[in-house]
Amino acid sequence: MSQTWWRGAAIYQVYLRSFADGNGDGIGDLAGLRSRLPYLKDLGIDAIWLNPWYPSPMADGGYDVADYRGIEPVFGTLAEAETFIQEAHELDIKVIIDVVPNHSSTASAWFQEALTDREARDRFWFRDEPNDWQSIFGGPAWTQVADGQWYLHLFAPEQPDFNWDNPAVHREFEDVLRFWFERGVDGFRIDSAALLFKSDTSYEDLDEVHEVYRRWREVADEYGDRVLIGEVWLPDQERFTRYLRPDELHTAFNFDFLACPWEPAELRRVIDLTLTTHAPVGAPPTWVLSNHDVTRPVTRYGRADTTFAHGGRLHGMPSDPELGHRRARAAALLAMALPGSVYVYQGEELGLPEVEDLPDEQRQDPMYHRSGGTNRGRDGCRVPLPWAGDEPPFGFGSGEAPTWLPQPESWRKVTAEAQSADLGSMLNLYRTALAHRRDLLGDGTLTWLTMGPDVLAFTRESGLTCVSNLGTAPVPLPPGRVLLTSGPLEDGALPSDTTVWLTSLA
Ligand code: NOJ
Ligand code: CA
Question: What string of H, E and C letters represents the secondary structure of 340-404?
Fold first, then answer.
């Protein structure tokens, strides 16, 4: 792979707890992931991004990190993580891990020290009086400790925010980056990358944050061919692309695309905006349809309202599974054809739906608990994957212990095994599309074709043309040889909610 492999990569997101369980305790782990590396190779991805694998009390699925230089014992050991990195590299798969610089865990050594020693509090935000900030998960953003002071946590109380005005915090994270670069990781996904600094009135997107990423870029560059990916949710595109200046982060997730409704004008607007704002900084766009925080696409696209918003999540809004599936297939081919890198969140390639009927007492997401249940949270997109067989745990583990979230019985039809045998399955669509993408798509530019207001159509440098029909009536195909379709053609025309890839006739 080239020095700039990340510019056009297909990156598969592994939510370790729910990917594959190697020791039968009902929780995914490194042994499980290692055993499924051939599946990922076969799928045709270039890199894996793993959600946090660090020691953690799991108050927020591992985003409460107790030790940035270790591996959560439930997942495995540091030695095993190193073996995993090596094995992935042998298959020519890059490894990206999560780093969480905005906040820590109350179980971390630094925070424990701060609790007993007031002198050691400056690495966090301790104050005699809290302000009125609310936690992003609901409820107040401050929690009081035994001696009367309060500490800031923009997320759960178990996730105290670091004080980035303290140079020790800068040194610590540069060292953490080096620790993992030296163990071979190819990059970091930076959690809550726009938060970090706080003023009296704001905790988002303060200018000082850019100095941190300039420094991190220098560190990454020392190791060569490594990538820094920002989780930056900002409504202002100009502010967003500042993070992608040539001496800062390499790429950032495209949340506008992720949250975009399945409507041609809105999609066209978001795609154009993405391309025009990325071009001046020279950073490749990214195309994301789902992740561990958002509603599964087949459920979302089957609803009357196809937007995604964190607030209500439209949980329980009726969804037509056939329609959702059809659109999710069309959306996948669209996303994979666009210039830049693409993300696939585990289970997306199986077309898994959001599990909306989890028993409340089994829900673990702090978003659910801290909102008093008004927000159903993110557990529904984190249910352990179905691999094979006719009953839970569907090959996720050995079945000695129940999976940490229950799997629907109906998933017998969507296991990786069942879908492998079905040429028309979502899994085989992803496999075929990713194989073609490798040769014909990825980094670069596009040229729009005009095919009417309901159709998104463009060609790429390789001559590949992608056409998505979001209207209700079939549309005639442009010239070219059909390479792949997300659904069957109708009398040679492209039906509603279908995408086709064509290659030039020559
Ligand atoms: C974003 C992560 O994707 C999410 O899962 C987490 O809860 C928050 N950041 C806080 O770390
Ligand atoms: Ca396990």
Answer: CEEEEECCHHHCCCCCCCCCHHHCCCHHHHHCCCCCCCCHHHCCCCCCCCCCCCCCCCCCCCCCC
